[in-house]
Amino acid sequence: MGDSRCVKRLFTVFLGWIVGGTLAFSQLLPTPIYQKATYFSLEDVRLLESPFLDLQQKGKEYLLWLNPDSLLHFYRIEAGLQPKARAYAGWESQDVWGAGPLRGGFLGFYLSSVSMMYQATGDKELLKRLQYVLNELELCQKAGKDGFLLGIKDGRKLFSEVASGKIKTNNPTVNGAWAPVYLINKMLLGLSAAYAQCGQEKALPMMIRLADWFGYQVLDKLTDEQVQRLLVCEHGSINESFVEIYKLTGEIRFLEWAGRLNDRAMWVPLSEGKDILFGWHANTQIPKFTGFEKYYEATGDKRLLNAAMNFWDIVNQNHTWVIGGNSTGEHFFPKKEFEERVLLKGGPETCNSVNMLRLTETLFSYQPDAKKAAYYERVLFNHILSAYDPVKGMCCYFTSMRPGHYRIYASRDSSFWCCGHTGLESPAKLGKFIYSRDKGGIRVNLFIPSVLTSKELGMELAQYSHMPESDKVEFRLNLQDERTLTLRIRRPDWAKNPILVINGKEEAIDTDTSGYWVLDRKWKKKNRIILKLPMEPYTENLVGSDKYVALLYGPYVLAGRLGMEKLPVSFWSTMNNMANNEIGLEKVPTFTCPSGAIPSLLKVVKTNPLHFRIQMKGFENIDIEPFYKIHFERYAVYWPVTL
């Protein structure tokens, strides 16, 4: 960029701040905020035997099963090249809601998922797939000659209309096309993962060319008000993508574009702590807030951080089910409606939880504490882990909270729902949040069997556990030499009277203000740390109601197996993403005592695998188990209560 052009652009930014408050003044002189916690590379963390490792392996199998040429089908068409394989069905190529298919929408997620899964497993076949797709995308982008890189039908024509000021938006369409800016965002995120996580150099110029195409050919031709109108339609975390490219290149234009892509309808009221979420499409909003936080990191504009933190608190407190998921039927609703909404077939959407975990990771890096880690644990152990079928490893769309309902899952080649998009990523990044690093040392955030190896720190930290069947968690810390190291281990609020034994000696350890035990000492070369985390049954009422109650044990939500009545022939669906066959609530047993008395009625009948029975009339033949273990049958997470 030439000097005169840069000056003109900075003047435009300044003028926008003066007249409309659209952009932060800090964009003129960005003040980056440095993270207090960072995450280890996925290649530094290896999962050990557990349900999480099983899920990771299923996810890898699916990535290797997919045909890259089918996912590239529409990209080659839009580049004027002959496709090499037929497109997949479902949202990839079939009409949905009259908005047409989400053409090519899966490929950006495929790029990021393959990149993360290669890091997490080291499987070289994944790297070959990644490199092949990048080579094909490079051919498509070069054939187009202008930086465009999408599978949207007539995408250039669509965005030319937008750039001319013809912008008709709703959610989920722009000028009749389904979420086109969302598709740009996902391709940019996929290319970013390939470059930043797997070192694929050619991904960066491809990402820059696509971002420049959108910036110069569309954004620069629109007023701020027109951009805000464009943002009415679901656009993922497009602001995050432009911040990321700014961080990778140092080119200020990307940060300026990112500022214009911050949706005022969300960040302004949420920066003031207002819960205005009722009626909004949940997963359209969640990714924006990761972008707001990233923009704060790049500029120091604390209004955007406040928006992200307030949003996280509000969703957690006012809009979240016991499994950690939020909303129902894809939309936020007021607290007073939980009693009504618990009876609906469409419960929390899986991709909402995936994106809330991304937001939690981002906020935790700025302010690490046990509250965020506990939320992450609740979502990961109970919504994400339960959302995948144990046979094919396919992800469900909705997890109904209706007592006596069930789940259906995506088919491998004929669904490609949004929850299949994000569901592709989750198995690849299961190791991300288990550990983090800060200035004082290492944090253990989650209790998942795994091994962390850091050549930089000259250490290996192995974690062994068999929860929920056992309350024992063992760590083995091996160092190259005896030295001082600070190890912080989250003190979980579900553990009753925990015991900590270090190298054979039981110790009373202080908990810091962030809710972590602080083990700050000079360590031997080989160390053994044993945690006893006693777990007991407890209950949580439905938000805002005493008429429904959920059962929990340690970090796990428990559910009851309620049989096979009126279930579908197949649990894997194509276009239909909802389980439709209800049974009457009269077939679900009811607690006839105060919720505080229920834990004493729950008795262990088997420890491996763990399951319970409830000693009350009507519950005699119902097995109670961790929710993530129940598939292909009806279940109850929430139970009716009458006094």
UniProtKB/TrEMBL annotation:
InterPro entries: 6-hairpin_glycosidase_sf (IPR008928), Beta-AFase-like_GH127_cat (IPR012878), Beta-AFase-like_GH127_middle (IPR049046), DUF4986 (IPR032275). Residues 44-431 form the Non-reducing end beta-L-arabinofuranosidase-like GH127 catalytic domain. It comes from the Bacteria. Pfam families: Beta-AFase-like_GH127_cat (PF07944), DUF4986 (PF16375), Glyco_hydro127M (PF20736). GO terms for biological process: carbohydrate metabolic process. Residues 577-639 form the DUF4986 domain. Residues 442-535 form the Non-reducing end beta-L-arabinofuranosidase-like GH127 middle domain. This is Uncharacterized protein.
